[in-house]
Structure formats: structure tokens, C-alpha cells
Amino acid sequence: MTHHVRIGLLGCGNVGGGLVQLVADEGVRIRERYGVALEIVRVLVRDGERERPGVDRRLITTHALDVLDADCDVIVELIGGVHSAGSFVRRALARGCNVVTANKALLANCGRELFAMAERNDVTIGFEASVCGAVPVVRALRRGLAGDSIESIAGILNGTCNYVLTRMEEGLDFETALLRAQANGFAEADPSLDIDGEDAAQKLRILADLAFDAPVRRAIMMGIRGVTSAEIDDASEKGCVIRLVAEARRVAGGVEMSVAPRLVPKSDPFARAIDEENVVMIRGRASGDVTLSGRGAGPLPTASAVLSDILECGDRSRRFATV
Amino acid sequence: MTHHVRIGLLGCGNVGGGLVQLVADEGVRIRERYGVALEIVRVLVRDGERERPGVDRRLITTHALDVLDADCDVIVELIGGVHSAGSFVRRALARGCNVVTANKALLANCGRELFAMAERNDVTIGFEASVCGAVPVVRALRRGLAGDSIESIAGILNGTCNYVLTRMEEGLDFETALLRAQANGFAEADPSLDIDGEDAAQKLRILADLAFDAPVRRAIMMGIRGVTSAEIDDASEKGCVIRLVAEARRVAGGVEMSVAPRLVPKSDPFARAIDEENVVMIRGRASGDVTLSGRGAGPLPTASAVLSDILECGDRSRRFATV
């Protein structure tokens, strides 16, 4: 018995292109292993004229409704931003489609409303790709550690800042290191979202919502813009490095969150995160410290998280048409 | 809407006792957060006379059928071994109960048959607790990385061997270190299962089945019994430590598995696993290296993995009676 899964793709940039490639590469294995036949049925793009290797031209459209009304099982939202993305996701949920998204800004801004809407329509929103790329931290919190009370979450959640700090340890100044991150495709379109801590704060917010389900009592956000080469050298002399650490912890009556540069001993797991690597340490009352790490960015790692969510939608709802 | 989940517990040793405690500690939170009301309805023990703090005496029985026929939603199998445990699990599946188990020997020996039986009866077998305690590596492979082709899995899967090796680095000889591991409750009842590599091999087999779904072409199993203090010192002079590394990797036509002591540079993530810590590194074609680590043994970490599986049974099948 094969379940046929019709996928509508909103956005075909780095991650969207990665997903198209991954579906082509893994399609046969997934069909044989899980009995799921994946088909991308429509693809929304901004520029319909651009050449996109691997993407069937006939699937491409510049009209979102062509995708949203194409009778899909899953809508994959990869356009980013809050306004258009939000209205597309709402329309998909209202039509009874599952949604998979990598859009942390959308979830940080209106996650609660969207999850409630998904529940009313008996569909799911997969968002593993929105935090830490291929590292399955959303599943770890949602499922693997669901039986435990989480006391704190701390991590290196922004690959760009970590890349910049790692390059500065090698002697580059801040501006040159940032340019190098952008050239390597790690930085967000607007790098200030990375550098000022906003991106890490959004991811932390998503993880904290999963872990604590409690009001935010205090939130601090500092980026790495002020970090100088002299401070990096000074840290090194003390046997430390500087890392942008995001931390959320349970306090009386709620949750306290902070994103800030910290001095971290070189032997610490956070110090050992180099370049665009992400690390998350989850402290549970019964389970102790569980640490997850891996590539937090990049088209294929992120696309692999999207694809896992697509497979899980199918697994959970079992509403896909049988071929 | 609250789902009521009736749990039948087979075995009330370290992990079973941990589960009883965890259900008491987390019950209110889980009811409020997930709408699931957990109730342990019967508990099978070997010695009905022993005092068990926190366990209601009226639930205790020494007859397995009292538990298996108690109209449970989930049977939790924590008695270990293959023969009795296997027949209890088969009976539970045949009755349409979900099963959660921490029994790696059972899964390594007859996992394929039991999973097929579960599928025929439209129930699930949760086994997160069978590998690496609280570290959600089973979920990472089953779900988080389902969209990717796994190339290799390598890890420190046996906490006892790692504890012994770590103590030997501090100057203890093999026998004294092993006695210390037993005194701390890490070692299996029969420590030769740990020391000779069998326990790590069983866990590796479970992970490899999840990751590769391919025949085993070659398997090597060596334990740490022959490792001497002189070898530990010699490794240290080379900037290395000795670790019992379990590795499975895709080769032409199947999978190659090995469990063996290896020389590992001190800067390696495997070297940094100390005492009973477990580490697993999963290499995916698209996702790159994803590493998970945490406490691989102990009553509460293992019980927290069992409880997460209980919650997921309920979430997936939605067959629990509504109160």
C-alpha cells in the first residue's frame, strides 16, 4: 500500500531548491521504506523567468493561489517573512492542508494562533527546520523529552554569529569575518537579524514555548556587534572563547530568556561549536543534560528537516490518498 | 477533552520504580499540557512481599496475566530477558495494546517479528529507552532524519565500559573500576554483557536496523576485557584515550558493524564522553553530522524515555478512551 503525498511548495530559494533535489534523490528509498510516494505538484516563485536546475518548468507559478488551491496534502512554506507567509499558511490550514515551515519569524510572531487554527482543522504544522537546521531539537522537546519537566535550554543557535566569532579567533576583524559569512551563504538576507541576536532570540522563543508553556518574565537580547578582536584575544588568554549563548530557564512564575555574548571555557561543549555548528543543551529534571549538535544552516540540512516533517504529517494523519 | 491512559507495568525494579515516581511527579503537568491522564493500573513483580515505596500495594501482582488482561492501553515491559518478556509482549500486541519496552535483547533477537505483529494489530512498539537512556536517538533516526539517507552511525553506547575506561584513566585497574561501576548501579546484572561488547552490539543492531534497513555483511565484536592500565597510559602519551566505539556503516550490498576499543584523540567528541555518558554521531548524506549525547543509563533518565513513548502511543493512535 502506497500513500501518495501531494506537496505544494511556496518559495524555491536555497532551501526550496534543496528540497526539490532531496525529493529527487531520496524519493525511491522513501517509497520503498515508508510506502510514501512524494510528488511536488506546484512551486511558487517570485521570478518566473529564472532558470532553476532540477525544477520542472511546468510546475512553476508566480501566483500563490495556484499552489494553495492545488489540492495538496502538505504546503511547504519557505518564502520567509510574516505578512504574506502568514496569510498563505492560514489559507492552507483553513483548507485542511498540513503545513511545514522553516519560518521562525512567523512562528515567533503568531505561532500560538496558527497552532490553534491547525488543531481546529485537525492538521499539523511541522517546524523542525525553523530551529537548528538538521538537528532534531524540536522533536526532542516535543516528543523525546515530553515525559520530563524541562529546567533549562541553552545553546548556540545562530550559525552566522558563531562563524564570525570563530573567524575572529583566527585573527580576522569583525567586518571581514561577517563578509566571509555572507559570501558562504550563512548570513540572513539582512545580517543585522543575526548579528544583533534577533534570529537566536526567535529560535529560543520557539524552543522555550515548546519546553515551558509558561509566561516570559524577563528577556534580554544582546548581539555580537560590539565584540572586538582585543576581547577575543583577552578571552583566549584566560583559556576561554566568546560565544553568543541563548538560554531560557524556568524561574518562579515563568521563564527567563537571554541571548548574549558569554565567556566560555575552551573545554565547554559550547566552545567546541565551530563555524556554523549549532549546539543545544536541554536540562530535564529526570533525564539530566541531553545535548544535540550539528549543522544549523545550509540548504540540504534544512531541507532534510523539512522532508522529515513532510513524512511525519503523512504518518500521523494517515489521510493521504492510497494509490 | 482528556484522554485516559491505562498503563500495565511488567517489572518494578530500578526503571519501573523510576517510572512510578515520574508518573507521580509529572502527572499533573502532563494532564494540563497534553490532556492525557496517566494511570498505572497493575504492576507485575517477582517478589510480592517486598516493600516498594510509592507503589500502591493493591496494584501489585505476581501473575503476568493480571496485568496483560487488565484492559490496558499500554503495556510497559521492563522485566528484561527474551523468553518470558517475548511471550508477554506478543500477548499484549495480540490484544491490541501498545507496548513500550526498554528491552534491547528482545528487540535485537526478535524485533522484526514483533514489529510486524504490531503493524498487523494496528498498535505501536515504543523502544526509545532501549538505546542510550534519555538520549532521543531512536526518534532522531525514526523521524528527525527519516528524510535523509544515513551513511554511518558511530557512538559510545555502553555506559559501563565508558565508566570503567574513565576510571582507569584516573589510575584504577580494570577489576577495581568494574567493581566501582557495579556499586554505582551502572553495570548489567551480568557485567560480561557490558564488558565483552554484547550490550553495545545489541544497541548498535537496533540503531542500524532503523537507519539502514539492509542486510549485515560483516560484524565484529570486541569488548574491553583485555585493556590494561599500561595501554591507557600509552594512549595518554599519544594525546589519546581508549573508548569502546560502536560503528555501523553502509557498504556495498549492506551494512558493516563493529564494536571495538579504539584509540581516540582527546579532542574528539567520543573522548569527551566521560563516566556513563553516551554519545551517538549520525552521518546523513544531506544533513551532515548530527550528534546526540546524554546520560545513557540510570533509573530516571531511562524512565523518562519510557514515559515519552507512552505519551506518543496516545498521540499517534488517538484510541484512548475519552473521560
Entry keywords:
homodimer; 323 residues; alpha/beta; Rossmann fold; Dihydrodipicolinate Reductase, domain 2; six-stranded parallel beta sheet; 11 helices; 12 strands; disordered C terminus
Structural write-up:
2 copies of one chain form a homodimer. Chain A has 323 residues and is α/β, with parallel strands linked by helices. The first copy, chain A, has 2 domains: 3-132 and 300-317, NAD(P)-binding Rossmann-like Domain (Rossmann fold); 137-296, Dihydrodipicolinate Reductase, domain 2, CATH 3.30.360.10. Chain A is built from 11 helices and 12 strands. Chain A has helices at residues 14-34, 64-68, 83-94, 104-120, 137-144, 159-169, 174-183, 192-195, 198-212, 229-237, 299-317; strands spanning 3-10, 36-44, 60-61, 74-77, 98-101, 125-126, 150-156, 216-221, 240-251, 254-265, 277-284, 288-295. A 6-stranded parallel sheet of chain A has the order 3-2-1-4-5-6, with helices on both faces. A 6-stranded mixed sheet of chain A has the order 8-10-9-7-11-12. In chain A, strand 9 and strand 10 (254-265) form a beta hairpin. The longest helix of chain A is centred in the N-terminal third of the chain and has 21 residues, at 14-34. Chain A is globular. Chains A and B meet through helix 1, helix 5, strand 12 and helix 11 of A and helix 1, helix 5, strand 12 and helix 11 of B. Strand 12 of chain A pairs antiparallel with strand 12 of chain B, so a sheet runs across the interface.
